[in-house]
Amino acid sequence: MSLISDAHAQAAAPGAGATSQILILVVFVAVFYFLLIRPQQKRMKEQQNMLSKLATGDEVVTSGGVLGRITDVGDTYLTLEIADGVRIRVQKAAVTQVVPKGTIKGA
């Protein structure tokens, strides 16, 4: 029985460990937010902004790697001319990048 009472006497104060654990948890959440969540939200906002500014005549690249010139813009779909007389309809969300005008001629 004397061993048990000695072990209890050596235990740390009950509130000291909990405060440091909460502090470490808060630091991990802050690091997670600033390294993962915030940059992803910024990229999503930039993507939505780019999609809302698409206009006829813009040259774009889709997520499948198709390069084309926009001939018609709708609410959810747009028409791309990928070659002379060849047009395809794609979802706006498939557009990943707007490229400088004249890129298609150089490709």
Descriptive terms for the model:
107 residues, alpha+beta, SH3 type barrels, 2 domains, 5-stranded antiparallel sheet, 3 helices
Question: Would you write up a description of this structure?
Answer:
The protein is of the alpha+beta class and 107 residues long. It has two domains: 2-50; 55-106, SH3 type barrels, CATH 2.30.30. It has three helices and five strands, in the order H-H-E-E-E-E-E-H. The protein has helices spanning 2-10, 16-52, 103-106; strands at 59-62, 67-73, 77-83, 86-91, 95-99. Strands 4-3-2-1-5 form a five-stranded antiparallel beta sheet, covered by helices on one side.
**How is the CATH topology of the largest domain named?**
SH3 type barrels
Low-pLDDT stretches are none
Number of strands: 5
Question: Based on the structure given, which CATH architecture of the largest domain is correct?
Answer: Roll
Largest sheet: 5 strands, antiparallel
Tell me the β content. 25-35%
Classified by CATH, the class of the largest domain is Mainly Beta
> Structural class given helices, strands, pairing?
alpha+beta
What is the distance, rounded to the nearest whole angstrom, between the alpha carbons of the first and last residues?
Answer: 85 Å
Strand arrangement in the largest pleated sheet: 4-3-2-1-5
Write the element-wise H/E pattern from the N-terminal end onward: HHEEEEEH
Tally of separate helices: 3
Overall geometry: rod-shaped
**What is the helix content?**
40-55%
